[in-house]
Each structure stands twice: as C-alpha cells, then as structure tokens.
C-alpha cells in the first residue's frame, strides 16, 4: 500500500487528476485525495505504513517463541486432561508460565498469529467395531433403507 500511495503522489505531480489516478491504481478517488493531502501536509513520511491500532501484545517475541515450543507438547505433559489444546488451557498455561493474564478469545487470536489452527477432536467410542460397522453399511442398510416412490424393491 505504501508503494501505491507514493505512486499516486508521483502521478499527481505528472499532472494526472485524482479520478485518473484512482482508476490506474484500482482504488477509490477519496483514497487518492487522502493520500495527496497527507503528503502535502506531512511530507513523504505521511505515506509510510503504520502499525495497526490496538493494544500491544502482553508477550514479547521470545515468550511467544517459547509458547510455540510449549504447545508442541501434549496438554497432559502440563497436567491438563485431553490430548488437544483448548483456548482455556492455553490461557492457563500462559498465566502459569509467564504470569500474564489473557482472555480465551484473545488467546485464539494469539494462536492464529503463531501459526496454529483450530482443531476438533474426533469423537469415537473406544468400543467402536469398525468391521461390524462396515458389514452393517454393506448388508443391513441397503436392505432397510427407503426406496424412492415408483422405484421397484428388490
């Protein structure tokens, strides 16, 4: 975006009007107007990218790297139940390890920043018999399922 803003100023100095610049850069005219005004009042520095607004992370880069390492272990390694990390578990791990309190919703954002994605556990009974299920699907189900009206039954 910074390059696009600089290009808009350059085109304006070459005599292009705001509508032509907007069309050439595939942006809206009010954006071009804002960029030209910013450059006129603040100079070239006004066109630079700025960090997004919002609170600073409570964890520094080294702590985030350590957290990534910690999350590679099973939650049971740290005394939690289950094999998949949940946001509340990670929230508690951060509190215990770094002394920092996070809301579980913000932990989800942090995990996404660190490259983790949401996972859902596969819920299957321990007693599940795959052979019996397969046999039922092949033999019993075709025999008992409804047939469309007008179709002949076998």
Overall form: flat
Distance between the termini: 66 Å
Q: Give me the strand/helix succession.
A: HHHHHHH
Biggest β-sheet: count, sense, barrel?
none
Give the uncertain stretches in residue-range form: none
What's the count of strands? 0
Mean pLDDT across the residues is 87
Computed over alpha carbons, the radius of gyration is 29 Å
Structural class: mainly alpha
Helical residues, percent: 40-55%
Percent strand: under 5%
* Number of helices, counting only DSSP H or I runs of 4 residues or more: 7
Quick take:
The chain is mainly alpha-helical and 154 residues long. 53% of the residues lie in helices and 0% in strands. Among the domains are: 2-47, Arc Repressor Mutant, subunit A (Orthogonal Bundle); 61-113, no CATH class.
């Amino acid at each position: 975006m910074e390059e696009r803003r600089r290009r808009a100023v350059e085109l304006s100095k070459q005599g292009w009007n705001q509508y032509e610049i907007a069309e050439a850069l595939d942006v809206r005219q009010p954006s071009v107007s804002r960029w030209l005004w910013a450059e006129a009042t603040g100079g070239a520095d006004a066109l630079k990218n700025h960090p997004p607004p919002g609170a600073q992370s409570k964890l520094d880069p080294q702590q985030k790297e350590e957290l990534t390492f910690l999350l590679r272990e099973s939650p049971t390694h740290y005394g939690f139940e289950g094999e998949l990390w949940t946001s509340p578990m990670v929230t508690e791990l951060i509190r215990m390890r770094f002394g920092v309190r996070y809301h579980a919703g913000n932990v989800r954002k942090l995990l996404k920043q660190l490259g983790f994605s949401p996972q859902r556990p596969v819920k299957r009974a321990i007693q599940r018999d795959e052979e019996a299920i397969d046999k039922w699907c092949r033999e019993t189900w075709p025999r008992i399922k409804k047939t469309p009206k007008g179709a002949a039954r076998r």
